[in-house]
């Protein structure tokens, strides 16, 4: 793959991830992980780990805009964030212990269940 087309893919993947994150309040990982894996040939574990590094700045920008519009429910935010910090630590520790094929299947099942829950 030519370097220029690779850079365009990266930029477009970033743009789409940012749009999904900004529009839906989350979900950037559902775009960036498969995008890195299928479009950029990034190994499964590295795609998941890299997604966190990419999503953090996107989330901060989106949060600032949501804050300016007064649409954040702070009493829920603090409580869920505390549990999320613990869950994030545990998940990050477990990531390298899960084989790639199981990680991919688990992620796919999670996305399917989330999609079904949103539709029904």
Write the layout of secondary structure elements.
Blueprint: H1 3-24, H2 28-39, H3 44-68, H4 74-95, H5 100-119
Helix pairs in contact: 1-2, 1-3, 2-3
Name the features.
mainly alpha; 120 residues; 5 helices
Structure report:
The chain has 120 residues and is mainly alpha-helical. It has one domain. 84% of the residues lie in helices and 0% in strands. The protein contains 5 helices and no strands. The protein has helices spanning 3-24, 28-39, 44-68, 74-95, 100-119. The radius of gyration is 16 Å and the shape is globular. The mean pLDDT is 89. InterPro entries: TM_pro_TauE-like (IPR002781), TSUP/Inactive_protease-like (IPR051598). It is found in: Cell membrane; Membrane.
Secondary structure tally: strands: 0
Number of domains: 1
Low-confidence stretches: none
Helix content: over 70%
Global mean pLDDT? 89
Query: Would you tell me the structural class of the helices and strands?
Result: mainly alpha
Number of contiguous helices:
5
The biggest sheet, with number of strands, parallel, antiparallel or mixed sense and barrel status, is:
none
String of helices and strands: HHHHH
| Percentage of residues in strands | under 5%
Described by the principal axes of the CA atoms, the overall outline is globular
Termini separation comes to 41 Å
Radius of gyration: 16 Å
**How is the quaternary structure best described?**
single chain
């Amino acid at each position: 793959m030519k370097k220029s087309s690779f850079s365009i893919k990266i930029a477009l993947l970033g743009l789409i991830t940012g749009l999904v994150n900004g529009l839906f309040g989350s979900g950037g990982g559902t775009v960036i992980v498969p995008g890195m894996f299928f479009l950029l040939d990034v190994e499964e574990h590295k795609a998941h780990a890299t997604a966190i590094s990419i999503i953090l700045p996107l989330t901060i920008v989106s949060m600032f805009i949501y804050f300016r519009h007064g649409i954040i429910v702070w009493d829920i935010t603090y409580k869920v964030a505390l549990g999320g910090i613990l869950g994030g630590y545990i998940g990050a520790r477990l990531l390298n212990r899960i084989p790639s094929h199981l990680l991919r299947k688990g992620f796919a099942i999670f996305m399917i269940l989330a999609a079904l829950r949103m539709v029904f």
